[in-house]
């Protein structure tokens, strides 16, 4: 499957990290990519993932990958275990005969597992071939520069996945520690899987599970009516909607739901379906 002629890179690399833009880390990773191939196209998804927040990075990748051409290489570096025994990996995810599919490059810490919920892993390798690193003795604290960036560049330049390291079973890849929604009659208990720039709380409850039904959310003793869009309630009021990502989210019209409800990643949200 990995040798299929359909599994070709588009020459496009996206970058996601928690590095911010104040320091030179992002620019240096781009420099390492350019040392391999100056002609690659680089797109920054975001470098404002909260520090060490694997769940936030997981969500960013999961919701971005479908909007890129088949064969895009997605490089993601949120790596609190850098330099430890955690594996560095690359994955071909999707189906070889259907778009979109993607290459994923990053640490094996759950950051890539959201994408794999949508597109199954065709193949995976541990990045243990130093021929494709920036140097044979990488920094213990900057694998983004010394391993992940050059590997992503080689993939985007047409190097076969299997050349980059030792094959590993896709079913042994680390999954993010995020519980699945739990249904009990008309009640579903979900989890906050993302918090965006506006403070909207995106749950892991799929919007299609409430399509055409009456429903509301509850957080602690706060009842939150459902709506279609943010402006269905007055300024400053909470509303539960199905957001653009396709999941149920809680927002405040003109305000910040995280600040009002004091919820964080992994927080519990209850959803009640009428009837």
UniProtKB/TrEMBL annotation:
Annotated ranges, domain S-adenosyl-l-methionine hydroxide adenosyltransferase C-terminal: 190-269
Annotated Pfam families: SAM_HAT_C (PF20257), SAM_HAT_N (PF01887)
Family: Belongs to the SAM hydrolase / SAM-dependent halogenase family.
Domain of life: Bacteria
S-adenosyl-l-methionine hydroxide adenosyltransferase N-terminal domain boundaries: 13-165
SUPFAM superfamilies per record: Bacterial fluorinating enzyme, C-terminal domain (SSF101852), Bacterial fluorinating enzyme, N-terminal domain (SSF102522)
Keyword list, A-Z: S-adenosyl-L-methionine
Signal peptide: none
Official protein name in the record: SAM-dependent chlorinase/fluorinase
Record-annotated membrane-spanning stretches: none
